[in-house]
């Protein structure tokens, strides 16, 4: 951080990356003292407001990386900074909102009460809570469902509530672990659309774990491609849609989108994908 | 996921009541049926009595039991009808059992909290809890009475009913402790981690997550505890010699069994009703916590 401050002198908040991971590693100790290297040599910087997806096969450590950033696990080596603070401090300061694959709503709380939960825990007054919940309910399009309970909602609706809840405290960073993984394809595409809109409205940086290539390309500014055993970053693909291209449904038929999908796929399979003939020989 | 309509719920409740009544009728038919066709000397196989004698002393007619219940307890002047005496004794027992249930529930819940908080405690305490329930109450009762008799602090002195309540609580705490522990441990990892991301400490997590999540486990445990408290009270009344309750009455009436066999069944029925009433009272408490009994959202 001091290096960048010396060369140019913009205000610190402008240079401060949302996330800065430097040569981070994670070793899990499993039964009988055996060790599993889940992550090794991870370097990643996420700029404020940037949308970054983590993609890779199962076991590549993408969820683990997210959990390290969220301070739900701690790295065994390296350094993880969130807005210049340690991951732990960032968690204590509520610097991020989080959403998991299952919505994780509390079944005895209404939609509104679920969204208010983090605010309630942090002593926000009742009127202010209600006002904020109202905004968020509108943002995720659940106005008619505010007093419903989770078991009365579809999977997609539950996930919307979870996203609204993760946004409750206006975090500048959103961590999402396959939030649409359990949804059907139609709902999934609609939710992606919604997420793009929500992100542009809130301006939060997002780290998004997925194993869908089109989903990653559709949503992200950059796609981080990871590989297992040990979990590491093999490539970072920038998704360049060209100037003025908005991430709307029509993007799914745009050549730039296909180019992005191809680039990510090649990175995933070890580039280039082409030598199929060589394999068959 | 199916939403239960009001009409459907009411119908199910009526059918539950109907099945319950049917069970009682079936029992009555069995009783009278065996009495009608069974041999008067009972069924004995290899010198072992398999089925009871069917004479009026061993198996009085149901009608006799009912008519005896509305006659006075004994021949002395001003003696109340048996059913009135039974209700009085049942209420006495209910009061003692309620105290025992309350103490047992609080203690059981606190033990569960401790076990949830400290894993070491769970491993250390749980085996003792299970062991505690294998101690026969009959053996325990004199010890508690003897200990209680030594307690005298100022104006307070240990009463016999307190021994009964303590023994009742000894039975009641166990299901509550086990049920509450399961309930407190029931939240999913995702919920616990979510609370961690909110930087909510143990107490906050307890208040907002574990306690509400434990309700579906706690209510049946409390109901079970109530039934146990009644059993404990009845047994403890007998073994401590506490007078005025239904347990004592069962013994007293049974002793007059040879001359007045139908009389003994009234307090037994009273004890059964008492168990049902106590479980019902706890169920009423549960109604106020209905919101927490919601199913986990399907995801």
UniProtKB/TrEMBL annotation, chain A:
Domain ABC transporter span(s) in chain numbering: 21-253
PROSITE patterns registered for this protein in UniProt: ABC_TRANSPORTER_1, ABC_TRANSPORTER_2
Keyword Nucleotide-binding belongs to the record: yes
Pfam family, one: ABC_tran
Keywords: ATP-binding, Nucleotide-binding, Transport
GO molecular function: ATP binding; ATP hydrolysis activity
Keyword Plastid applies: no
The name this protein goes by in its record: Nitrate ABC transporter ATP-binding protein
Species in which this protein is naturally found: Subtercola boreus
Phylogenetic placement of the source organism: Bacteria, Bacillati, Actinomycetota, Actinomycetes, Micrococcales
TrEMBL record, chain B:
Gene3D superfamilies: MetI-like
Signal peptide extent: none
Principal localisation: membrane
InterPro entries referenced in this protein's UniProt entry, alphabetically: MetI-like, MetI-like_sf
GO BP, one annotated term: transmembrane transport
GO terms for cellular component: plasma membrane
Superkingdom field: Bacteria
Cell compartment(s), UniProt: Cell membrane
Sequence ranges assigned to domain ABC transmembrane type-1 in this UniProt record: 90-286
TM segment ranges: 82-113, 125-149, 161-181, 217-236, 264-289
UniProt KW keywords: Cell membrane, Membrane, Transmembrane, Transmembrane helix, Transport
Topological category with respect to the lipid bilayer: Multi-pass membrane protein
Pfam families on file: BPD_transp_1 (PF00528)
Keyword presence, Transcription: no
Family: Belongs to the binding-protein-dependent transport system permease family.
Name of this protein: ABC transporter permease
Organism from which the protein derives: Subtercola boreus
